[in-house]
């Protein structure tokens, strides 16, 4: 009996040891590329010239592969996992490589945004919310859900994944028209036979070229950088609106990484109407979850009392504290825009630390044929601005795929006007009003309006340069 017990114990020990050893081996040897390769079964003709050209020109160089791998290390596991969970071709998870290089702050000249590059109308059609607080197109979780839902609908409509991917780029109506044209002419209606825009004709082969490199890296003399087949982040459900600085303080994760993992949030806090979740690095998530359960929900968003001063307006206070004008009215129970000196208002605490994160630039990736001139026209900025923001000489050649930073218009660096010795070029600060500036310099606001050709005194913006021609008053 004792011998049988010892034998069972020994066998159990071997099983446990083997399981642990096996688990350890899998974790150390399996990469995310392996996971994609093992599940890659999309059918297409890999010998097509379009795919070979895309592989040669677009991706068959180690530098670009390294950069794409670096960009994808935080988000690719999630797009792969979600696609497989939905029984979708794993190749769809690679679309953000072509759309945005997996940069959630990427923006196109047509207004597309996020890793899946939704334009506003398509985002709305697919349930992505966008308001002052939040842009679902940049939310990794929400945009991935919407993209897979959209691609699934396109596949159900056309019954062909290559056409579904093409429709994701060109739009369903364009694809439908081209299919109908070919049917009337008695021509094939597969992707390769449709007369599609040049961008779409290149788009699908680019994605398939990436698939080919992952399936056969040796063929392209490419070394795929190791990406672990495990999640980078975890989704933490929240009880209510949360101040993102509080998330940083409680989790120990620096604020910049909080925003990189949660790029959908436009402001200093999550949207009061949801979504009620944040993404945090896996190693931090458990600790934060425990802290979250013990903390008073009222401490998750911090507010201060603000004493209204002479010259204050609701607009100037909203700008100063980076809060939506209508929300400021709502939380203070104001029926109109009237406020009085010495009145107390409730405002969010400490906006100063957040400005650097809210004012981050959008990112545009250079396309073939782009120049600083063409990009300046697309985004309605000057070549000089682009040169300053990106430390470029206007005559520089732009490398396809390289990053170009596009800053919000109100942050555009402008040369200071040439002024007399007693004149001042005054940069407008957050919270400034014409009345405040006039009091600061001991002049009437009418002079400021006249010197700067301003008709509506409420229309001044942070970063704007006001000419204060004080020499005229000497």
Task: Describe, in short, the structure shown.
The protein is mostly helical. The chain is built from 21 helices and eight strands.
Q: How many extended strands?
A: 8
CATH architecture of the largest domain: Orthogonal Bundle
Show unreliable segments. Answer: 1-29, 410-421
Mean model confidence by pLDDT = 82
What structural class results from the helix and strand content? mainly alpha
Number of domains: 5
Largest sheet: 2 strands, antiparallel
Number of helical segments? 21
Radius of gyration: 28 Å
CATH topology of the largest domain: Lysozyme
Q: Could you spell the SSE succession in H and E letters?
A: HHHHHHHHHHHEHHEHEHHEHEHHEEHHE
Question: What's the N-to-C terminus distance?
Answer: 110 Å
Set out the fold topology.
Layout: H1 2-29, H2 32-39, H3 49-59, H4 62-72, H5 76-85, H6 95-99, H7 120-125, H8 140-158, H9 161-170, H10 172-185, H11 198-215, E1 233-237, H12 244-251, H13 255-261, E2 277-281, H14 282-294, E3 303-307, H15 314-320, H16 325-331, E4 344-348, H17 355-358, E5 362-365, H18 372-379, H19 383-390, E6 403-406, E7 424-427, H20 434-441, H21 445-451, E8 465-468
Antiparallel strand pairs: 1-2, 3-4, 5-6, 7-8
Helix pairs in contact: 3-11, 5-8, 8-9, 9-10, 9-11
């Amino acid at each position: 009996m004792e011998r049988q017990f010892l034998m069972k114990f020994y066998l159990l020990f071997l099983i446990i040891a083997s399981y642990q050893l096996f688990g350890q081996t899998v974790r150390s040897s399996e990469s995310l590329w392996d996971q994609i390769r093992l599940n890659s079964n999309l059918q297409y003709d890999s010998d097509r010239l379009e795919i070979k050209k895309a592989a040669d020109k677009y991706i068959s160089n180690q530098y670009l592969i390294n950069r794409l791998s670096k960009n994808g290390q935080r988000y690719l596991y999630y797009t792969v996992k979600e696609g497989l969970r939905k029984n979708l071709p794993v190749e769809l998870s690679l679309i953000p490589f072509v759309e945005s290089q997996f940069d959630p702050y990427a923006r196109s000249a047509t207004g597309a945004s996020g890793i899946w590059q939704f334009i506003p109308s398509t985002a709305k059609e697919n349930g992505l919310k966008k308001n002052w607080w939040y842009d679902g197109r940049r939310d990794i979780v929400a945009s991935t859900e919407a993209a897979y839902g959209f691609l699934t609908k396109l596949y159900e409509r056309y019954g062909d994944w290559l056409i579904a991917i093409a429709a994701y780029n060109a739009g369903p109506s364009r694809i439908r028209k081209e299919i109908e044209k070919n049917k009337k002419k008695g021509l094939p209606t597969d992707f390769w036979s449709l007369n599609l825009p040049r961008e779409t004709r290149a788009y699908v082969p680019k994605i398939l070229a990436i698939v080919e490199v992952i399936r056969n890296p040796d063929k392209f003399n490419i070394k795929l950088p190791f990406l672990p087949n495990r999640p980078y982040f975890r989704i933490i459900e929240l009880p209510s609106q949360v101040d993102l600085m509080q998330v940083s303080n409680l989790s120990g994760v620096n604020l910049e990484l909080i925003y990189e993992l949660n790029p959908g949030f436009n402001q200093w806090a999550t949207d009061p109407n949801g979504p009620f979740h944040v993404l945090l690095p896996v190693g931090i998530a458990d600790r934060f979850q425990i802290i979250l359960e013990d903390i008073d929900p009222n401490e998750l968003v911090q507010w201060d009392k603000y004493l209204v001063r002479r010259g204050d307006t609701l607009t100037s206070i909203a700008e100063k504290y980076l809060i939506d004008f209508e929300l400021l009215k709502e939380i203070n129970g104001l029926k109109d825009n009237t406020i009085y000196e010495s009145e107390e208002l409730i405002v969010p605490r400490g906006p100063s630390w957040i400005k650097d994160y809210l004012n981050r630039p959008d990112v545009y990736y250079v396309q073939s044929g782009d120049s600083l001139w063409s990009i300046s026209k697309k985004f309605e900025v000057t070549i000089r601005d682009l040169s300053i923001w990106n430390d470029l000489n206007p005559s520089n050649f732009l490398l396809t795929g390289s990053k170009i930073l596009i800053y919000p218009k109100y942050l555009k660096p402008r040369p200071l006007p040439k002024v007399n010795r007693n004149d001042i070029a005054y940069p407008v600060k957050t919270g400034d009003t014409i009345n405040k500036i006039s009091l600061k310099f001991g002049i009437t606001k009418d002079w400021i309006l006249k010197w700067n050709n301003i008709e509506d005194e409420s229309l001044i913006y942070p970063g704007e340069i006001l000419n204060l021609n004080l020499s005229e008053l000497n």
